[in-house]
C-alpha cells in the first residue's frame, strides 16, 4: 500500500508541470497583447480583456431592451471575425453626406429584444446592408497611423490612371471626439478609418458605438438609449470603456504562418503581380505613439484604410459618411486564414459574410478590383492555389 | 510542487489527531435498511451524533480540496478551497413525525443557504407528507449530493450547472415507498416555488437554471405565483440496482404584475433519468444520470440562450483493495472514472442552419481512499474540452485535484 501511494505521489509530482493542456501555437490564435507592454499596461490590458470577453450584459445590467448581442465577445469570438449569428444590419442613409434617417430607426437595426419587448423591424422596402463583425486584432497599430500617411495612397480622381482611386471617408465626429495630433481637420469633419465603410474615426468612437448600438448600453459618451431615444443613466463606466479601448489598441497583430514555404512565397509574388496589393497595402510603419509598444513599428495589415468602388454587385444602396453606396473600405487581410477559428469552422467573408471561401471572395470583387479579379481568373490552377495559400497564411 | 502535495496530507493528519470529549456524544447508526435505501432516502441516510438524551441529533460534512488547473497552457497556479461545510440537525418529534434541516456554507461562508428544512409526517409507508424547504427531486444527484459519497472532487457539471444543485424551494408534497421482497418502489411529488427570468437573463450568456438560486426571495414568495411541480418515480431491486425517472416543470417567468401583463407565460420542463448499480462479480459501482431541459425562450430574444439542453455523467468506481489498510480495519482503495457531457444549447442557427455548439465533455480518472465509509480522500485528474456557441476550436482544460471529504 505504502509503495503504491509513494509511486502515485511520485508520478504526480513528476507530471505536474505537464498536466496542463498545451497552449495552441502562438501564430494560431489572435488573442494576446502586443509585445512590449509594461506591467501597468498589461494590467490595463487584462481589465479591458475582461470587459471585452467576459462581461455579459443582461436585462438586469442594462442590456437592450433591444440589442444585437449580449457582449463584445459574442461578436468577436477569440478577437477574430464574426459569424452571421451576430451580423449587424445598418440602414437609413442612402446617399453620401446625408444624415442617417433616425425617424425610421437608423442607423442600426436592433433585431433582438429582452423578454417582454419587441425588437426593431426593418421598415419595408428600406435598403440595408449586413455587416459581419470584423476581427479586432492589430487595431492599435492602425489607429497609430497618421491621417497624412493614409492620405498618401489616396487618389480620388485616379490621377495616376491605374484604375484604383482610394478615397477617404470624411465623417462628422461625435461630440466627445478629441482630435489627436495626427488627425487632420477637414472643415469640421475627420477621416474615418474603422468599420466596413471607414465611417469611424477612432477606437473610442468604435467602442462607444458598439456598446450603444449593438448592446443597448449607454455611457456618458453616448447617453441616448437607442430603444427609447431618451437620455438615460450610464450603464457602463467611463473606465470600462477606456479599458476596452486600451485592450483593442494593444491586442497583438496576427502572425503570418509558414512564411518560408515556397508555395506561399510564390503566392505572395502573385498577390503583388495581379495588383491585389494596390489596395491591400502590405506594409506600414507607425510614428511615435503614446504607447511605446506601438511606436515606430513596421507591420503588415494588407489594407490602405481607404474606400474603393467595388462595383454594383456589392452595392447595397446604403452608406455611411461621405462614402458612396458602392464604396467599401479595403479590409485588412491579416488573420484571414484564421477566420474559420472564430467563425465556427467556416469562412464568412466580404462585408456581409456572403463568401464561403477566399476564392469566392476574390471572385466577388468588382469595380476597381475588376482588373485584379480578371487576372486571378486567368491564373493557372497551381498559381491560384499558391495565391490562396498565401492568403491563408496571413 | 512536492511540498504542495504533502501539505494537504499533513493538514489531514493534524485534523485526524485532534481530540474532543466524546463521552457526551453517541453515534446514531445509519438507517439499518440501508441496503434497501433509495436515492429519495438520502437526506436521512446520513450519520448523526446525538447529544445525551436530547431528542435532536446533529451531523454534517466538510469538503476541502487543492487544485492545480489550467486552460490552454495557462494556469492560475495552486489553489486551496473549502467548497462547502454543511450542518444537519434532525429530530424525532413523534414516532411518525420527524424534522431535518441542512444548512450549507459554501466557499468559506461566502454563501449560506438552507438546503433542506422540512417536517415529515408519516400516515402510511406509501403516504408521507413533507413540508418546508424541500430538495426538488429532479435526478438523483440533487437528492444525494453529499460530498463524502462521491469519489470526485468536483460535482458533475450537468447536474450542478445545467440542472441546479442543490436546488431547494419552499413547498409541500407527498412521498412514499412500497417494498416487495427484493424490490422497492418509491414516488415523490411536490409543489414548490420555482424559477424566474434569470434563467435566460444572466451573466453566463446561456440558459442557466442555477441563476435562479441567486434569488433568495424564492423562500419568501413565488416569483410569478405559479407552482413548480417536481415528481419522481424510482424502482430498486437489491440485486440489480435503482433506476429513477423524474420531471420538473412549470411557468418560470414573471408574466404579470399588479394585474398588468408583462410577457407571455413561458414554461420550463426538465426530464431526468438516473441509475445506480453494483456489478456483483467485480463489485464495480456504476452511477449515472442524464437530463433534458426545455425552456420556452422568446423567439425575439437571442439564440445565445438555448431552448434545449442535455447532459449527464456516469461514474465507474472499482474497489481494488479492501480490508485493513494504513491502520484502518475496513478501508477501501478504489480506482474510478467519471465521464461527463453537457450541451448548453441544442439546436441550429437561424442564420446559417449550422449546429449551435456551446458544449463540453470531460473525463476524470480518480483514485480514492476511504479509511472509513464516511470519509474519503480523493485524487483526480480532470481533462475537459469546452466549445463556444459557434463551434470554434475548443478550450482545453486540465489539471489535478486533491481533496478530502467527511461526515462528522
From TrEMBL, chain A:
GO terms for molecular function: cytochrome-c peroxidase activity; electron transfer activity; heme binding; metal ion binding. It holds the Pfam family DHOR. Residues 48-252, 262-394 form the Cytochrome c domain. Residues 1-15 form the signal peptide. Keywords: Heme, Iron, Metal-binding, Signal. It comes from the Bacteria. The keyword tRNA processing does not apply. The keyword Cell membrane does not apply. This is CxxC motif-containing protein (DUF1111 family).
From TrEMBL, chain B:
This is Phosphate-selective porin O/P. It comes from Algoriphagus aquaeductus. Keywords: Signal. Residues 1-18 form the signal peptide. InterPro entries: Porin_dom_sf. It comes from the Bacteria.
Amino acid at each position: 500500500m505504502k509503495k503504491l501511494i509513494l509511486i502515485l505521489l511520485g508520478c504526480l509530482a513528476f507530471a505536474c508541470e505537464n498536466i496542463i493542456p498545451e497552449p495552441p501555437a502562438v501564430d494560431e490564435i489572435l488573442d494576446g497583447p502586443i509585445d512590449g507592454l509594461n506591467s501597468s499596461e498589461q494590467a490595463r490590458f487584462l481589465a479591458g480583456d475582461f470587459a471585452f470577453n467576459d462581461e455579459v450584459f443582461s436585462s438586469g445590467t442594462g442590456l437592450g431592451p433591444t440589442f444585437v448581442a449580449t457582449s463584445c465577445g459574442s461578436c468577436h469570438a477569440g478577437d477574430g471575425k464574426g459569424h452571421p449569428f451576430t451580423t449587424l444590419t445598418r440602414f437609413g442613409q442612402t446617399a453620401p453626406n446625408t444624415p442617417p434617417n433616425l425617424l425610421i430607426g437608423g442607423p442600426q437595426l436592433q433585431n433582438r429584444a429582452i423578454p417582454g419587448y419587441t425588437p426593431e423591424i426593418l421598415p419595408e422596402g428600406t435598403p440595408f446592408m449586413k455587416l459581419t463583425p470584423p476581427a479586432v486584432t492589430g487595431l492599435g497599430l492602425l489607429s497609430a497611423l497618421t491621417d497624412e500617411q493614409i492620405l498618401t495612397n489616396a487618389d480620388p480622381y485616379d490621377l495616376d490612371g491605374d484604375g484604383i482611386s482610394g478615397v477617404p471617408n470624411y465623417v462628422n465626429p461625435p461630440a466627445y471626439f478629441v482630435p489627436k495630433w495626427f488627425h487632420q481637420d477637414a472643415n469640421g469633419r475627420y477621416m474615418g478609418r474603422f468599420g466596413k465603410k471607414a465611417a469611424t474615426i477612432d477606437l473610442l468612437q468604435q467602442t462607444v458605438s458598439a456598446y450603444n448600438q449593438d448592446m443597448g448600453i449607454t455611457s456618458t459618451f453616448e447617453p441616448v438609449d437607442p430603444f427609447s431615444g431618451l437620455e438615460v443613466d450610464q450603464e457602463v463606466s467611463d473606465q470600462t470603456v477606456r479599458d476596452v479601448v486600451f485592450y483593442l489598441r494593444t491586442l497583438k497583430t496576427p502572425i503570418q504562418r509558414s512564411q518560408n514555404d515556397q508555395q506561399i512565397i510564390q503566392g505572395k509574388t502573385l498577390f503583388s503581380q495581379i495588383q491585389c496589393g494596390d489596395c491591400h497595402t502590405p506594409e506600414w510603419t507607425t510614428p511615435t505613439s503614446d504607447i511605446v509598444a506601438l511606436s515606430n513599428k513596421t507591420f503588415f495589415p494588407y489594407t490602405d484604410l481607404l474606400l474603393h468602388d467595388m462595383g454594383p454587385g456589392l452595392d447595397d444602396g446604403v452608406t455611411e459618411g461621405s462614402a458612396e453606396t458602392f464604396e467599401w473600405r479595403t479590409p485588412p487581410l491579416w488573420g484571414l486564414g484564421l477566420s474559420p477559428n472564430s467563425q465556427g469552422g467556416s469562412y464568412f467573408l466580404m462585408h456581409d459574410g456572403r463568401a464561403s471561401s477566399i476564392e469566392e471572395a476574390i471572385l466577388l470583387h468588382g469595380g476597381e478590383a475588376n482588373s485584379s479579379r480578371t487576372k486571378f481568373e486567368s491564373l493557372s490552377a497551381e498559381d491560384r492555389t499558391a495565391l490562396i495559400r498565401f492568403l491563408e497564411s496571413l | 510542487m512536492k511540498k504542495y502535495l504533502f501539505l494537504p496530507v499533513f493538514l489531514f493528519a493534524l485534523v485526524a489527531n485532534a481530540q474532543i470529549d466524546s463521552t457526551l456524544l453517541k453515534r446514531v447508526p445509519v438507517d439499518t435498511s440501508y441496503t434497501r435505501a433509495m436515492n429519495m432516502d438520502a437526506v436521512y441516510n446520513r450519520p448523526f451524533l446525538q447529544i445525551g438524551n436530547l431528542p435532536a441529533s446533529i451531523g454534517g460534512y466538510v469538503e476541502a480540496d487543492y487544485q492545480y488547473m489550467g486552460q490552454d497552457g495557462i494556469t492560475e497556479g495552486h489553489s486551496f478551497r473549502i467548497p462547502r461545510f454543511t450542518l444537519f440537525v434532525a429530530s424525532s418529534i413523534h414516532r411518525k413525525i420527524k424534522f431535518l434541516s441542512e444548512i450549507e456554507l459554501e466557499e468559506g461562508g461566502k454563501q449560506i443557504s438552507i438546503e433542506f428544512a422540512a417536517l415529515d409526517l408519516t400516515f402510511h409507508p406509501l403516504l408521507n407528507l413533507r413540508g418546508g424547504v424541500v430538495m426538488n427531486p429532479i435526478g438523483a444527484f440533487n437528492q444525494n449530493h453529499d460530498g463524502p459519497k462521491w469519489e470526485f472532487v468536483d460535482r458533475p457539471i450537468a447536474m450542478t450547472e445545467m440542472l441546479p444543485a442543490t436546488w431547494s424551494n419552499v413547498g409541500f408534497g407527498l412521498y412514499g415507498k412500497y417494498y416487495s421482497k427484493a424490490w422497492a418502489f418509491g414516488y415523490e411529488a411536490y409543489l414548490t416555488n420555482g424559477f424566474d427570468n434569470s434563467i435566460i437573463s444572466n451573466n453566463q450568456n446561456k440558459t442557466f437554471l442555477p441563476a435562479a438560486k441567486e434569488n433568495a426571495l424564492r423562500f419568501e414568495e413565488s416569483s410569478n405565483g405559479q407552482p413548480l411541480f417536481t415528481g419522481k418515480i424510482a424502482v430498486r431491486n437489491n440485486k440489480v440496482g435503482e433506476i429513477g425517472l423524474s420531471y420538473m416543470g412549470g411557468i418560470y417567468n414573471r408574466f404579470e404584475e399588479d394585474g398588468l401583463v408583462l410577457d407571455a407565460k413561458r414554461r420550463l420542463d426538465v426530464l431526468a433519468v438516473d441509475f445506480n448499480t453494483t456489478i456483483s462479480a467485480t463489485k464495480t459501482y456504476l452511477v449515472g444520470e442524464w437530463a433534458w431541459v426545455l425552456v420556452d425562450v422568446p423567439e425575439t430574444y437571442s439564440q445565445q440562450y438555448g431552448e434545449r439542453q442535455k447532459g449527464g455523467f456516469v461514474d465507474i468506481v472499482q474497489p481494488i483493495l479492501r480490508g485493513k489498510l494504513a491502520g484502518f480495519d475496513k478501508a477501501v482503495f478504489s480506482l474510478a472514472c467519471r465521464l461527463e457531457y453537457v450541451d448548453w444549447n441544442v439546436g441550429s442557427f437561424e442564420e446559417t442552419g449550422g449546429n449551435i455548439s456551446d458544449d463540453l465533455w470531460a473525463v476524470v480518472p480518480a483514485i480514492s481512499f476511504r479509511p472509513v465509509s464516511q470519509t474519503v480522500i480523493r485524487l483526480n485528474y480532470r481533462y475537459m474540452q469546452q466549445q463556444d456557441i459557434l463551434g470554434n476550436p475548443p478550450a482545453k482544460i486540465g489539471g489535478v485535484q486533491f481533496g478530502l471529504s467527511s461526515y462528522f
